[in-house]
Amino acid sequence: MEKLRIGIAGLGRLGQRHAENLAHRVPNAQLVAACSPVEQELEWARKTLGVAHCYAEYAALLAHPGLDAVFLVTPTSLHAQQIIAALQAGKHVFCEKPLSLDLEDCLKVEAEAARHPHLQVMIGFVRRFDASYRDAAYKIRAGMIGKPYLVRSQTMDLNDPGGFFVRFAASSGGIFLDCSVHDIDLARWLLDSPAPARVTATGTTVIHHGLREFGDVDNGLATLEFADGSMASFMASRTMAHGHETLTEVFGTKGRLTIGGGAQLNRVEMADHNGISHECTPDFYSRFSDAFLLEAQEFVAAALGQGKLSLKLHDATEATRVGLAMARSMRDRQAVDLL
Amino acid sequence: MEKLRIGIAGLGRLGQRHAENLAHRVPNAQLVAACSPVEQELEWARKTLGVAHCYAEYAALLAHPGLDAVFLVTPTSLHAQQIIAALQAGKHVFCEKPLSLDLEDCLKVEAEAARHPHLQVMIGFVRRFDASYRDAAYKIRAGMIGKPYLVRSQTMDLNDPGGFFVRFAASSGGIFLDCSVHDIDLARWLLDSPAPARVTATGTTVIHHGLREFGDVDNGLATLEFADGSMASFMASRTMAHGHETLTEVFGTKGRLTIGGGAQLNRVEMADHNGISHECTPDFYSRFSDAFLLEAQEFVAAALGQGKLSLKLHDATEATRVGLAMARSMRDRQAVDLL
Amino acid sequence: MEKLRIGIAGLGRLGQRHAENLAHRVPNAQLVAACSPVEQELEWARKTLGVAHCYAEYAALLAHPGLDAVFLVTPTSLHAQQIIAALQAGKHVFCEKPLSLDLEDCLKVEAEAARHPHLQVMIGFVRRFDASYRDAAYKIRAGMIGKPYLVRSQTMDLNDPGGFFVRFAASSGGIFLDCSVHDIDLARWLLDSPAPARVTATGTTVIHHGLREFGDVDNGLATLEFADGSMASFMASRTMAHGHETLTEVFGTKGRLTIGGGAQLNRVEMADHNGISHECTPDFYSRFSDAFLLEAQEFVAAALGQGKLSLKLHDATEATRVGLAMARSMRDRQAVDLL
Amino acid sequence: MEKLRIGIAGLGRLGQRHAENLAHRVPNAQLVAACSPVEQELEWARKTLGVAHCYAEYAALLAHPGLDAVFLVTPTSLHAQQIIAALQAGKHVFCEKPLSLDLEDCLKVEAEAARHPHLQVMIGFVRRFDASYRDAAYKIRAGMIGKPYLVRSQTMDLNDPGGFFVRFAASSGGIFLDCSVHDIDLARWLLDSPAPARVTATGTTVIHHGLREFGDVDNGLATLEFADGSMASFMASRTMAHGHETLTEVFGTKGRLTIGGGAQLNRVEMADHNGISHECTPDFYSRFSDAFLLEAQEFVAAALGQGKLSLKLHDATEATRVGLAMARSMRDRQAVDLL
């Protein structure tokens, strides 16, 4: 069996998950190298996954002999340059979302990728690989809800009393680029890629007041109008008490699909003096772990020439473009036109 | 508008609910008299409902001039003789379930009723009047689940730490005659009255150990086979932590109907650190309050000659007969044949 | 028992429901008169409800001797003048929502009401009387979700292929004043009446294209910011395939309450070749019939001096004010400030 | 990394699933050989999984040099002798449930296993490895439902119009040994292994009448009493229209856990003219695919000396013993004592 030789850059929490998938659960992938500025992360890769070649520098990773592809799970600010460098080194690239917080950089990456048509570039909009979202997309394409005209999508995170994302706020791009970027991509995908026309957004801060100095909020609302008359409504929150809840509704002229209602952790239900209850997924990984694996499998297959990517690099640019418009609309307190 | 003049006997908790319905919510009913051995219950009827004529003795109630009908919400041991006396006095009779714990008495009541074909007699199998059970019955009759062949029905009561029913155990007939009698009636109704053929039952006592001296249990299981090959499975409990849960499933060759799953108190759902939860109906009245009203309305209409009863006196006899067989099966630890 | 003598004006579909409640289900109400320009509606009131006094003219109804109160279920354009006339005639007034589509008229009604402090005036924001909404409000006031900061509320109507509301569009005020006005009132109520600060709204028309000539849409989205930083997000639709779905979520710092999820018609669930399903409430009346009754009971009790109204006339003015701002925001494609 | 060298016997539908897991998803397993009397199944193993050594005879598989363990996914009638042969050849054994339809054979296997204490033997009661069942077991052990006293468990299969299991009926042992054996094992596990005391069972045939000649049914009911007073109630069916539904309820003195209610296929919900619905898992594999993997991982780890098996061989004997008693109770129409 032909195997894709992959090097991973970034071994934080999510990077480790990707690394484990590549090492154990993608039959035609071979995790041959890893790169991190943090020595103990490399030590983890060596000991736990048996990764033989570990590098502190990204350039060294790219130079690893025989490498076919890189997985980038690095800070967003590095994405564009790292993708471009990888392409120029002749590597296929998987990169975590968002592509970039800078629209120019997105376009530069698109341009560079266009120069290497034989190389695959995928930005990890993981929800597109979730079995439930896929089923919904299939049903929409099959006409089961008539013509879809409205998407309501929300990304609601379990409150983190430690407020990790407050420290991360300076570089996250704010709640819309960090969280809603997924929902924006879903709306475009599920509505069959209409042109974004106009955005309004607002937000409020109810727990994590430290966000204010970054112009960010812990709860955001946004509305997106498309040129064809379809619409999308978004909510994002950092302050849920019950868990991570990703919920999307697609309204069509003959029906509505809801994906993710209830946020069930598993199939257990408790009936006690509090009534009847179920636990909820605590974080995005517990919700989308299978999708992270499918995403890696699709990327690897495409890079091996055994399939096609189901999303385009330009989709990532559009998600950034709309997310940036939301941030601006909230800041300036006025609608932002996108046409 | 012609009105049915009604006297109620028994003003305990459920009796008061019936009295309120008759006084305020059944337009063509007139609650003209009440009877109770408890003076303060009569006082309540006078003050709260404006019932003008209150009696300590049932015979006096029957003798009340112009009375058309009686509502019996009295101890089960009195049902048979009170129904017979009412019929002999020319009154229509509504009587709470069960008809009697004694099969002979059931038959005597049936015989007396047969002598007064112009008088209506209804035993209050209230679930038959619940909108959800009615919808299910309609769907079954319409063939929506194919041929029904199996009913699973359970009556699970919220644990009462005070253990009222332990003190009541001597006269309740036990868990099958007190609780499952409803489920037995539902099974017969929803399966279109096949002949009961054979019963097995067992039980256990996990909280209310005082039941043991009466040969009763706080959790019971029973199986009923019908002559046509259809079956029913029953559960009854006194020890639920979450509420009163009446749940019935009807399995047919093309589908299954479930009535009462979730036991929702209302349409409110809470998402908090415990996950997502809803509260449950605490007791049968919070579950079936609308059905108690519809039941009274049907009885009143039938007594006024404006409609027909949807259940027969013999249905109540059958429920008692099967319930008694369950109690015997549990006691003797062997199957009881009913054919 | 003292009874409130009531005359009803307007006997259309909803008017008939109110009339039935007053005639049969509100013990201390007496429906003594009715008024409608449609003779067959009056005939219905006479025959079905036994209303003795029927008038074609509103003035004649007001002049009916001994009348204590009026119920107005008339076209919105008549509300203000009819309320004012009733107050001047010394009658308590219940009026269906919305109070008016004209803010000036709302204020005139408030002013007139202030001149008659002994008269009760209630605008029928029926959802405030729903058991589930009341339970949610109670839980919020009890602190069970911490500080509430965001309401998401939607009113989604079953598609009516006949498009009744298209013919009604000229006088309805549009989707926000016809549907969202309820959600606006709920948001204010559940957030404890913060001051509305700013509104943005948009919409699309996907089935009922005839709405366009009235500047109306069949699906609308709106966002409302309050002066204290709390927010509300609204959806309204005329095009649902599954039923009438009124759903409200209240997000607080410690939890979220959802009211109305699932839109269950009853407690029946079907498992068949389509999977597991339940039917949905087809219209607002099947969802809120109990609330319409409680609303009438509260009004009657207050008019008899036996209780207080739980909502103020000014609440109705605020709902109209915000609804008008939404309509303007959609029309002008810009935010509308409300402070 | 040390790897367990495994040979699989039996490559039918479920065998193929096991083989894929061993080949790709259990990092420390190596699928080195396969055995099947069906040449095209071996061909599949060679081509799809790259299994180098394929045998037509089980004896040849056992003789494969360096083999550490066997996976038996063969007909039940072969289990006992194949396990014994494997143990005598010094191999660890994983075997699909049920252990055997013959109690004597179960005991012989137990005796042989006792002679090889260093060899692991696991019977695949896969539900014990499902994340939801594990969560429930954890919660029970943690006391969250008080003392558990009643398990209700059902295995309901999607109707197979082709009736595969009718052809399989002669060797399946009947519905209780084929389906309920899982529920029996769950009940024992979740109640902490009380001693089975008494069984009653019955059944009916509503679609697959061909079962009758084998004394089998397509819908069965059974009750199991334990020596400590706890109880279990079982349902099994071959005739569901909506899917495969495995549902277990555990009742305790302080609460109830339900595992598997709703049988959701995924997180998608459809709202259309039929109401609101979701699709259901079509078969046991779509429900338990993750558990099949965890089961293999636990077995491999234990065989490598890196963990302990969480279930005992004797558990499988007990499941067979109770299942046989159910079959006998149904046939003889009387209770069967097990003490």
Automatic annotation (TrEMBL), chains A, B, C, D:
<keyword id="KW-0560">Oxidoreductase</keyword>
<dbReference type="GO" id="GO:0016491">
    <property type="term" value="F:oxidoreductase activity"/>
</dbReference>
<feature type="domain" description="Gfo/Idh/MocA-like oxidoreductase N-terminal">
    <location>
        <begin position="4"/>
        <end position="124"/>
    </location>
</feature>
<dbReference type="GO" id="GO:0000166">
    <property type="term" value="F:nucleotide binding"/>
</dbReference>
<dbReference type="Pfam" id="PF22725">
    <property type="entry name" value="GFO_IDH_MocA_C3"/>
</dbReference>
<dbReference type="GO" id="GO:0006740">
    <property type="term" value="P:NADPH regeneration"/>
</dbReference>
<dbReference type="InterPro" id="IPR036291">
    <property type="entry name" value="NAD(P)-bd_dom_sf"/>
</dbReference>
<protein>
    <submittedName>
        <fullName>Gfo/Idh/MocA family oxidoreductase</fullName>
    </submittedName>
</protein>
<dbReference type="Pfam" id="PF01408">
    <property type="entry name" value="GFO_IDH_MocA"/>
</dbReference>
<dbReference type="InterPro" id="IPR055170">
    <property type="entry name" value="GFO_IDH_MocA-like_dom"/>
</dbReference>
<feature type="domain" description="GFO/IDH/MocA-like oxidoreductase">
    <location>
        <begin position="134"/>
        <end position="257"/>
    </location>
</feature>
<dbReference type="InterPro" id="IPR000683">
    <property type="entry name" value="Gfo/Idh/MocA-like_OxRdtase_N"/>
</dbReference>
<comment type="similarity">
    <text>Belongs to the Gfo/Idh/MocA family.</text>
</comment>
<dbReference type="GO" id="GO:0005737">
    <property type="term" value="C:cytoplasm"/>
</dbReference>
